Amino acid sequence: xxxxxxxLSHLHIAKRSSIKDSTAYILDIDVSKSVEEQNxxxxxxxxxxxxxxxxxxxxxxxxxxxxxxxxxxxxVRFSNSNHNLLYSACSxxxxxLWDARVIGTGAVQVYNGYPSNVFISLDISCNDLVVCAGTExxxxxxxxxxxxxxxxxDTKSKEPLGVYSESHNDDVTQVRFHPTNPSLVASxxxxxxxxxxxxxxxxxxxxxxxxxNSDSSVNVIGWAGKDYKQVYxxxxxxxxxxxxxAQVDTEEPITLCKVEDMREKVSACPIDYxxxxxxxxxKDSLLLVGGSHSGNINLLNCDFERVTHLKALQGGHSAxxxxxxxxxxxxxxxxxxxxxxxxxxxxxxxxxxxxKRDHQKMASSLQQSVRVHNTKSHSSGxxxxxxx
Length: 388
Hints:
Blueprint: H1 2-9, E1 11-18, E2 26-31, E3 42-47, E4 52-56, E5 61-66, E6 73-78, E7 85-90, E8 94-99, E9 109-112, E10 119-124, E11 130-135, E12 144-148, E13 157-158, E14 162-164, E15 172-177, E16 184-189, E17 193-198, H2 204-207, E18 208-213, E19 218-224, E20 230-235, E21 240-244, E22 255-259, H3 262-265, E23 273-280, E24 285-291, E25 297-302, E26 307-313, E27 321-327, E28 332-337, E29 341-347
Parallel strand pairs: 9-13
Antiparallel strand pairs: 1-29, 2-3, 3-4, 4-5, 6-7, 7-8, 8-9, 10-11, 11-12, 12-14, 15-16, 16-17, 17-18, 19-20, 20-21, 21-22, 23-24, 24-25, 25-26, 27-28, 28-29
């Protein structure tokens, strides 16, 4: 714990960049993962104006923009092995593949869903072989759709490999592949469930290996723990749940921690909302990132019994922060929000760029509507839930 506090205590603003359209806000951030030189890393940000903008991390200068999407975007992810390729989901029933080397607005590959699909989440497996996207609920259907992710120059579009349609009964808000096992994928939904699948199995029933119930509407999910055998979720009402999948077939409870409202749990450190979570493998620590509508960011450390405030990042943003991305290579943090600012926080570096600007928008222009949570009880039927 002391090591975490010390490593985070030196975080300062190293660089900042402003979006030209000051009315746009940043919804999602990702950083290229596989590069020969760290200084060549590329940042991709997803903006509310239906565009994806690419920045060079070293200088925080904008490289290019993709804006060919006709509808709402959800999520942006770089390939794990090719830092020029990135994926985004769209509400027009497609996932698109972009190539940073190609100047222009067109996607190099289109992954087609079914006509009614409105994709709101996506991820790519750690071996870059499978793309999965989650849909909004349309009538009685919500889907996880899978494609062969590999780029094929001889065809512009690809059809699905298959779908899972029975395991969620509401919007699939998050999809996350296991960091090291390409056959495992977790999904979270506004139905309250976090499901884990082994996609090597022949059918959906056999593929569903674990079901965890948050008793709320799932906003963010992630993998944690040694060998990433744990999953956690953040809910739309600022709750937090943490489960140990290694306990599924034992007599031990799978719930490691459950907090109904993190704002009350860390009252000594005021937060208005949770932004996301982060597992630091080298330190075996799960961090949560919370924020205030004035732009402050707080880093929280979670263990099975308590949540501890580690670091407050102040003086950067002037409005609600909606996204972040941590780089393990240099222990840096990228944050973006409703003030149209992209900030790079690095250890032992002080800000030499202009001071933060006041945002010119009304308070919180991003109040995403969430379908009312289905209060019907869901349970894995295996373990008794325990609260911390």
